[in-house]
Amino acid sequence: MDYSIIFVCLMGMGTVFFGLVCLIVLTTLLGRVCGRDHPSAAPAAAVPEAAPAVDQQELIAAISAAIAEDLGTDITGIRILSVKKL
Q1: What are phi and psi of 77, to 5 degrees?
Q2: Which tens digit of pLDDT belongs to each residue from 25-68?
Q3: Domain ranges of the chain
Q4: 3-state SS assignment for residue 73
């Protein structure tokens, strides 16, 4: 049997595409099945937890040290004017 290059390429791409579609279907089904088994999990996840308080001075010191290390300079030569959370 002599298969052409295009046929082999299309069969390979078709196999991969079919496998990906099967994975999508299986993960969707498992998500729905697991979601029904644990109805109490949704309200617990909706409550935001308090983030641990970080000392502002320690945060500035850590940022300054990281910048100084990256630039290869002394930490006394760095002045941070403001810090914004992204």
Answers
A1: -85, 5
A2: 999 999 888 876 555 555 555 555 665 666 888 888 888 899 99
A3: 5-38+54-77
A4: coil
